[in-house]
Every structure is written in C-alpha cells, then in structure tokens.
Write a structure and sequence with these properties.
CATH class: Mainly Alpha
Structural class: alpha+beta
Helix content: 55-70%
CATH architecture: Orthogonal Bundle
Strand order of the largest sheet: 1-3-2
Distance between the termini: 36 Å
Radius of gyration: 13 Å
Strand content: 15-25%
Number of domains: 1
Number of helices: 3
Largest sheet: 3 strands, antiparallel
Order of helices and strands: EHHEEH
CATH topology: Arc Repressor Mutant, subunit A
C-alpha cells in the first residue's frame, strides 16, 4: 500500500487543494489519512479507483 501526498494527489487529479477538500467533505473524493501534526496522505489505490470511476462514468454517457 502506498500513500500519496497532497501534492501528488493534486498532480494526479488536476484539482486545486481547496477543490479536493470540498469534494472530500461531501463524500465525493477519498478521505485523507492523518499521519501526524499538519501531515496527511491519501491511499493511492483509492485515488486511482476514483479516477477509474470518472472514466467509466464518461464512457457510460458516451455510449448512451
């Protein structure tokens, strides 16, 4: 299992930190893992699954 930093997540999903936090707050993005004071990580597999789901939703709309 690998954890990603906020910066790495931002590079993967192309959203600002603030937008990622908003999506997370309403349950639309994987939750962060608190690692210590002022430090969080995201489970890489969860972020990748989130991206895969976005692609599947896109493809489902395209085939309709």
């Amino acid at each position: 299992m690998k954890l990603l930093s906020k910066k790495q997540v931002r590079e993967k999903v192309l959203y600002s930190f603030a937008h990622i936090a908003r999506l997370e707050a309403v349950g639309l993005f994987p939750k962060r893992v608190p690692l210590g004071p002022g430090r969080v990580g995201y489970v890489e597999e969860e972020v990748e699954n989130w991206i895969i789901k976005r692609i599947a939703e896109r493809d489902a709309r395209s085939s309709s």
